[in-house]
Write a structure and sequence with these properties.
The chain has 490 residues and is α+β, with helices and mostly antiparallel strands. The chain folds into four domains: 237 residues, Beta Barrel (Thrombin, subunit H), CATH 2.40.10.120; 34 residues, no CATH class; 87 residues, PDZ domain (Pdz3 Domain, Roll), CATH 2.30.42; 94 residues, PDZ domain (Pdz3 Domain, Roll). The protein is 16% helix and 32% strand. It is built from eleven helices and 27 strands. It has a seven-stranded antiparallel beta sheet with strand order 7-6-3-4-5-9-8. A six-stranded antiparallel beta barrel has the order 10-11-12-15-14-13. A hairpin with a 4-residue loop joins strand 8 and strand 9.
Length: 490
């Protein structure tokens, strides 16, 4: 499975600080965690250089790259009133008069992708689109051992997901600082294209900070590493590694008119990956620092349009009222040229740097305003306009259910005439997706007739429950109450 993008940038998809008491062996490049990692860059074992030879690198990485098989149940609701048609090759014999029975059982669909083991506790990084809509995930190692995987969390805005398997003596790979990866550097893409297990291809880093407009999420972060190493459907979630066998990025997309490799592939930089992984392990969800600006890459045409001298940087088209940027003094028409001392000349690069920060982090931003440079100290905020960090509690129960929840805000509750509730934000492979037709956006108001207004109340009811469970709630875009039932084993 691989996200695809045509050369005209039209997209489609095939099926698009460490935790407390968690792994000190997970390489981490993010801020205060840098000095606590077990495999820092200085400790990474270097493979001797000579004539270009990929055999030693391949031996080092193959055991850590896995195949992921996702089971996707077909929704009965989608087929209730639609008779199933006979496949074309049978219609030649039976004609259009023949239809398959309406009550024929639906067969599950399967997806295929890749993942990378990143520590000894069995944590696996992959793409969100590899696991999206799956009811069950099966992981196969290079030695053909298979495991059921649990979703620890996912982040659609970066198209990343974190899984976990319970295995022993697992081989894991380390991350390197993707900022230090250079254009022209040799890299290997490792994954399972077309379910051809453990495939290695070689190429170079052909560009950095690419935005190909493939992620439809509102706050999507796209600043890909571009490579000419062959990547095909099924490579999604696999590793892009340097010649020392360390993770440079996670393979995600290809540029193609045909759906197959035609010269360019794209990987999420390791610095973004390590930040997302650290957040999912420590907080249960990604903590995004937001500037609150609308931006575009500065170029000659834009300079002519705005009647200003061309300056390399990122044009601030607008600043959201009362946003982090607004509070710091950044204005529309400013050109951002540096962040924390690093030059920025494209909007994807600016997004990439900011995406490595959390709400409450302070960043130094230098702008060019009417020909003069000015520096601002910006305290990043979350999407709700505060510096709060939100930590997901009761992680084991929520992972079992396979969902992210949020307590309904007072404004929405008032609009819907509710006393409160708990909204389903995201669904992953788990009980709710396996046993119900629930979809994101559902607001749970009662469990077995008992009112719930917070995540804590929801979990408290379910943790002490054995047997059948009835959820009562509403959707904002659907009239009336909706009910879902499922069973909890002892």
């Amino acid at each position: 499975m691989i996200a695809l993008v045509s050369v005209s940038l039209t997209s489609c998809k095939d099926i698009n600080s460490l935790a407390e008491n968690t792994d000190n062996d997970l390489p981490q490049l993010y801020a205060e965690e840098r000095n606590s990692v077990n495999a820092s860059q200085n400790d990474i074992q270097k493979i001797p250089r000579g004539p270009v030879d990929f055999t030693e690198t391949s031996k080092k990485v193959l055991d850590a790259v896995v195949h992921i098989r996702s089971t996707q149940a077909t929704s009965n609701d989608d087929n209730e009133l639609q008779p199933r048609e006979l496949p074309d090759f049978f219609r030649e014999f039976f004609g259009d008069r023949f239809q398959m029975p309406e009550n024929m059982p639906q067969q599950p669909m399967y997806g295929s992708g890749s993942g990378v083991i990143i520590d000894q506790k069995g944590h696996i990084v992959t793409n969100n689109h590899v696991i999206n809509n799956a009811t069950e995930l099966e992981v196969t190692l290079h030695n053909n051992e298979t495991y059921k995987a649990t979703v620890i969390g996912a982040d659609p805005t970066t198209d990343l997901a974190l899984l976990q398997i319970k295995g022993k003596d697992l081989k894991a790979l380390s991350f390197v600082d993707s900022d230090k990866v250079e254009i022209g550097e040799w890299v290997l893409a490792v994954g399972n294209p077309y379910s051809l297990y453990s495939t290695v291809t070689a190429g170079i880093v052909s560009a950095k900070a690419r935005n190909i407009n493939i992620n439809p999420e509102k706050l999507a972060v796209e600043s890909f590493i571009q490579t000419d190493a062959a990547i095909n459907p099924g490579n999604s979630g696999g590793a892009l590694v340097d010649l020392d066998g360390n993770i440079v990025g996670i393979n995600t997309a290809i540029a193609s008119r045909t759906g197959s490799y035609t010269g360019y592939g794209f990987a999420i930089p390791s610095n973004i990956v390590t930040k997302v992984v650290a957040d999912l392990l420590k907080y249960g969800s990604v903590q995004r620092g937001i500037l609150g600006v609308t931006i575009t890459t500065m170029n000659g045409n834009l300079a002519k349009e705005k009647k200003i001298d061309f300056i390399k940087g990122v044009w601030v088209e607008s600043v959201n009222e009362d946003s982090a940027a607004d509070k710091a003094g950044i204005k529309a028409g400013d050109i951002i040229v540096k962040v924390d001392g690093t030059d920025v000349i494209t909007s994807p690069r600016l997004q990439e740097i900011i995406a490595q920060h959390r709400p409450g982090d302070k960043v130094s931003i230098v702008v060019n305003r009417k020909g003069k440079e000015r520096e601002f100290q910006v305290t990043l905020e979350n999407v709700k306009g505060s510096t709060d960090i939100t930590k997901k509690e009761n992680v084991e129960m929520l992972n079992f259910l396979g969902a992210d929840f949020e307590t309904l805000d007072k404004e929405t509750a008032k609009k819907l005439n509710l006393d409160g509730g708990v909204r389903v934000v995201n669904l992953y492979p788990g009980l709710l997706r396996q046993k119900t037709q629930i979809r994101p956006g559902y607001i749970i108001t009662h469990v077995d007739g008992k009112k719930v207004t917070t995540i804590k109340e929801l979990v408290a009811v379910l943790e002490n429950k054995i047997g059948g469970v009835m959820l009562e709630g509403v959707y904002e875009d659907m009239p009336g109450k909706q009910y879902y039932a499922f069973g909890l084993d002892s």
